[in-house]
Amino acid sequence: MSANVSLLKSLPGCRYRSACRGLLQGNQAGGCPASKGRRAAINTAAGTPPRPLEGVRVLDLTRVLAGPFATMILGDLGAEVIKVERPGGGDDTRAWGPPFVSSESIYFLSINRNKKSIAVDMKHRRGAEIILQLAGVSDVLVENFLPGKLSQMGLGYAELSRLNPRLIYCSISGYGQTGPQSQSPGYDSIASAVSGMMHITGPEDGEPVRPGVAMTDLATGLYAHGAVMAALLQRQRTGRGAHIDCNLLSSQVSCLSHIAANYLNAGKEARRWGTAHESIVPYQGFRTKDGHLVVAAGNDQQFVRVCQVLDLQNLTEDPNYRTNQLRVQNRKQLLQTLSERFLQERTADWLRRFQGSGVPVGPINSIQEVFSEPQVKHNGLIQEMEHPTAGRIAVPGPAVRFSSFSLSAPTVPPLIGQHTVQVLRDTLACSDDVIRELLEAKAVAQNEVF
């Protein structure tokens, strides 16, 4: 504790310094004055209903995908997200391309809306001080450093929770904060392999396949977002923050759902099925004359309707196909018959024939076709913004809608260090002289466009 007290004494120009020192010394009444100010402003604001996380400040020390995806969702819900990036290169995904729009990586643009970017050299003593200050006036901190790395810098949960007992500190890693693999770096493809996800993904008699998007990273981001929301609710009751241990391996293993339960309860090893389902027939993709579609006949009545649409009523009278269990046992011949029939007409024709049948069907769309779907447009899943250097950009919008507030008008993904001076001045109340010193010392950097 004494080390943090010493560090706080050296912090430059923050009007909340004495209050934060009081927290360190055990004076926890009322919390951080910066947070109190934000809440008061929101409570007295008139106009549109506030989003649920307005007044919540998130210090985002993450990069790549799982962490930024989680903090983007928090930003969509109204949180003020301050994204910390290293000066120069910034988040790794800023270099991931092509494609680029102007000089901006589309990968980065897709997962970093509704954030402010500050460029801070955390290896610089004064840079670490800035992070310490921001943690003292934040509600949530999300990081994806190797376990123990931030503690070595005096920025671990044990250190920061003494400074700010209400801080919710979410750590995202590859394998967890403790255990035999905790010091291994976390990558989606490796966690997807270790967790068994790749073992069950791919053609029935083919090689294991990596999913087309980083589903393990994305699942971890969703878990992290939900965990932060739960911790915020818990803090309302207890007045204290928490340390959240969220990792790729656990997230993906938990998502194995019935595949995992099949093994744990029946000793049944999983295998690859392509688009098919091991326990339901027909429940898979079929090739048509000009593409593919998926049919999901989940019960016997729906199977009868499939046969009627395909003009194969004779199949409903075959004793080998009367029940789903029999269809699973005799899937090979049945699927061959169905596949030959689906090849005789175009996808659009089959979709028209199935309309109103009560059988779930859908085309296997290209990405171009996805964003031409009327329902995708209706659901607001194309979100357009005006970027300062890339111009007009579009990204996938939020998946969830609420009746109580609007998710419209997002802020564009930031440039590296776009908000450095703004955050130092407005959030930490640093003087112009102190900001100039930090810039000259290269502890922080400000984007020249702003």
How would you characterize this protein structure?
This protein has 20 helices and 14 strands. By secondary structure, it is of the alpha/beta class. The model is unreliable at 1-13 and 15-33 (pLDDT under 50). The relative contact order is 0.13. It is elongated. The chain has a seven-stranded mixed β-sheet, sandwiched between helices. It has helices at 2-9, 17-24, 33-44, 66-76, 106-110, 125-136, 149-152, 157-163, 188-194, 215-238, 248-254, 257-266, 300-309, 324-329, 331-342, 347-354, 367-370, 374-378, 420-427, 432-440, and strands spanning 57-61, 80-85, 100-101, 104-105, 116-120, 140-143, 168-173, 242-247, 283-287, 292-296, 361-363, 382-387, 391-396, 444-445. Strand 1, helix 4 (66-76) and strand 2 (80-85) form a beta-alpha-beta unit. Helices cover 39% and strands 14% of the residues.
Q: Strand order, main sheet: write it out.
A: 8-7-6-1-2-5-14
Percent helix, as a range, is 25-40%
Sheet having the most strands: 7 strands, mixed
Average pLDDT across residues? 90
Number of helices: 20
Topology, please?
Elements: H1 2-9, H2 17-24, H3 33-44, E1 57-61, H4 66-76, E2 80-85, E3 100-101, E4 104-105, H5 106-110, E5 116-120, H6 125-136, E6 140-143, H7 149-152, H8 157-163, E7 168-173, H9 188-194, H10 215-238, E8 242-247, H11 248-254, H12 257-266, E9 283-287, E10 292-296, H13 300-309, H14 324-329, H15 331-342, H16 347-354, E11 361-363, H17 367-370, H18 374-378, E12 382-387, E13 391-396, H19 420-427, H20 432-440, E14 444-445
Parallel strand pairs: 1-2, 1-6, 2-5, 6-7, 7-8
Antiparallel strand pairs: 3-4, 5-14, 9-10, 10-11, 12-13
Helix pairs in contact: 1-2, 4-10, 10-11
